[in-house]
Write a structure and sequence with these properties.
2 copies of one chain form a homodimer. Chain A is α/β, with parallel strands linked by helices. Chain A has an 8-stranded mixed sheet, sandwiched between helices. In chain A, strands 3, 4, 5, 6 and 7 form a 5-stranded antiparallel sheet that branches. In chain A, a hairpin with a 5-residue loop joins strand 3 and strand 4. In chain A, helix 5 packs across helix 9, helix 10 packs parallel to helix 12 and helix 11 packs antiparallel against helix 12. The longest helix of chain A has 19 residues. The relative contact order of chain A is 0.25. Chains A and B meet through helix 4 and helix 13 of A and helix 1, strand 13 and helix 14 of B.
Chain lengths: 399, 399
């Protein structure tokens, strides 16, 4: 069944700008307010004062989202229906064109001892150049049974992509990454009968990798997130929006590509992302800009650095607002509270600014103020409908 | 399809304590605040100040829940999917092991006049001893057709359990309790074709009961809530939690057993329940403690007694908090406002306290304060996910 919102979409001249501060959401603790509440954000506060605020649950009550799920929701795709695995994300990030039937997984090169126990899950964070050399070695020496192709493609640092291609493969396998050191990687275990053959293939591949890499520091690999290509209705068709994703990290460009957006080159950071926005303003209807350091700082437990990453975005708001968007939405794809040092399940504040949004008496942008905003509690997947509506891009429903 | 939250469950050392004050929710009226707002609860107020609050809708907007539905929701089972009838609840309460195919119903012994009109729906609240004598009489004298077994088991006061056992039975029957006096009990009416035979069996049973009890004050019985055993995924498997239910009333121990928890002996009341919690602290991951007098007082319209029952729990909070739980959640299974003298549909306040919950500026525990808490409006069935999340027992969703 076609979904309601896409069925109501119509065109308009009004542009939509979505600013995603990764892991924006925080929590108040006994000692401090949240990062967003403590950050000096006069420009976001002004947009909040002129527009309306709310908080969103990213996936569901109590659920801690990964970045893939958070972004799919913000793009208006139900993150439960449209679950993306690491394999598909990695493939999109390195521009590998997955085909129907391919099985993809995220590779971490690692170091194991003589008995095969994991010593370092990231092999001392080997360089991208070393990673490329190892991938070439494996590609040259690996021998799979007839009809099966293997691709090992460098992502960055210790990360790579594995793709198996052939008939009858299944991604219904467990990860081999034990998640800790001092133990052996787990065997790739089929979670259903159809995956039995694929599990054996992966095991044969891993046995060969172990032999090929035996003299390297990064002498083995861990596999996570076995995945296949899943059909997704392209964002530009779904919403009649010519869309551009702008980010510095490949994964977020990959996410944009998965949903069919055009993407920027990987930018050097937020300031360059804003330049890309300005340079491409007249060619698109929808822009998604991604700020990564808010999340990285949160995961490091670095409260002040997360504040700085928020304030960096704030300083560019006047420049962005002056471009003449119909709607600007500022939010995060999940919470990464510095006191918790990880993604969390807490709701994420958002503000929606635009001519037809209306204002709600909330005059600053933070978690507590946003809870009292006109939008109240929403699900992340529904923000897209509000953006479209505020841009005059949704027809009236029902006579 | 497996549900999302159970699919993300992982183990942790963090313990969860759920305190259920039965019928906790109240309403503000022209004259008074709610019972919870008027109660002196310095300890719950402190947990609210350190944690976060919200209100929950137990089943759905405007729906007044029974205790079974309210508890199933708090245990994380959708109360609409997992509806429990009175028959199954009664069976669990008296430790009767229902088998697949059994039909169970709640019995109320009653008094009827010579024409069969109901004079007293509770037969003057006969003693449990009288009840036992009547059940024995019936069991000795009743004669059912070949292949059909009948069990009549005393619960307490005027209440008993009826179980029919045999092939081809159906619980799709209407209650015989007219709900009022001065009229005859209704016939057990089949609601589908499959229940026609069972309806006739029940009528034959009732005709005999009327004859067997003709010389008693409690000279007949009313039947409610025909039900069968329904498969439920056990709580300890579903959430990877070794779980203990602690209560003074058999029905709540029965509810705990239905979902597969271990249970305490029936305690003498709240103070003994807290002793059971302390004595078993190291053997379980999850504890559910039930306080009944809040509900009984509400149903009696006794505002002051409901306050006292709330304050009794409050006084034990420091002792409970000192045990070192990862998460404490305090709430009710529904509202029983004393001014209404019955269960009601009103939302129920809850507070969630724990290291990773965060605080929200709400510094007391009552209906109005809770509405402004960080959790906002939730469904009761989703509280379990928040408890698991706050205890670090849910993995990240989506890469």
């Amino acid at each position: 069944m076609r979904e309601l919102v896409p069925s109501l979409v119509r065109e308009s001249d009004s542009k939509i700008v979505l600013l995603v501060l990764d892991g924006l959401g925080g929590v108040r603790t006994a000692g401090r307010a949240s990062e967003l509440a403590e950050a000096r954000t006069p420009n976001m506060d002004q947009l909040a004062a002129e527009g309306s605020s709310g908080v969103h649950t990213v996936v569901g009550p109590g659920i801690t989202p990964g970045s893939g799920a958070g972004h799919m929701a913000l793009f208006g795709y139900d993150p439960i229906t449209y679950l993306l695995g690491r394999g598909a994300l990695s493939a999109a990030g390195v521009n590998f064109a997955l085909r129907a039937g391919d099985v993809a997984a995220r590779v971490n090169f690692c170091t194991v001892d003589d008995e095969g126990h994991v010593l370092d899950r990231r092999a001392g964070r080997i360089s991208t150049e070393t990673n490329q050399r190892l991938c070439t070695m494996i590609m040259n020496e690996i021998q799979m049974e007839a009809g099966i192709e293997v691709f090992v493609v460098t992502e960055r640092d210790h990360r790579a992509l594995l793709v198996l291609r052939g008939l009858g493969l299944s991604a219904d396998l467990t990860d081999t990454d034990p998640g800790i050191t001092g133990v052996k990687p787990t065997f790739p275990t089929p979670r259903s009968n159809e995956a039995t053959g694929t599990a054996a293939l992966v095991q044969s591949f891993l046995d060969q990798v172990r032999a090929i890499l035996c003299d390297e520091q990064a002498n083995f690999m861990l596999l996570r997130g076995f995945d296949t290509l899943r059909p997704i209705e392209a964002f530009p068709n779904r919403y009649l929006l010519k869309a551009r994703g702008i980010a510095s990290y490949p994964m977020y460009l990959g996410l944009s590509k998965i949903v069919g957006m055009d993407v920027s080159p990987a930018t050097a950071g937020w300031m360059e992302s804003v330049e890309d926005l300005k340079a491409n303003w007249y060619d698109y209807d929808y822009f998604y800009l991604h700020q990564k350091p808010t999340d990285s700082a949160g995961e490091d437990g670095d409260f002040e650095r997360k504040i700085a990453a928020i304030e960096q975005v704030d300083q560019t708001i006047p420049e962005i607002a002056s471009l003449g968007a119909g709607v600007i939405c500022i939010t995060g794809d999940h919470a990464t509270p510095a006191p918790l040092k990880r993604h969390s399940w807490h709701p994420v504040p958002f503000l929606m600014w635009g001519e037809s949004v209306g204002t709600d008496g909330v005059d600053r942008f933070d978690e507590e103020a946003a809870r009292h905003g006109a939008f109240g509690y929403q699900y992340a997947k529904d923000l897209m409908a509000f953006m479209l509506a505020a841009a005059g891009r949704l027809a009236t429903y029902g006579a």
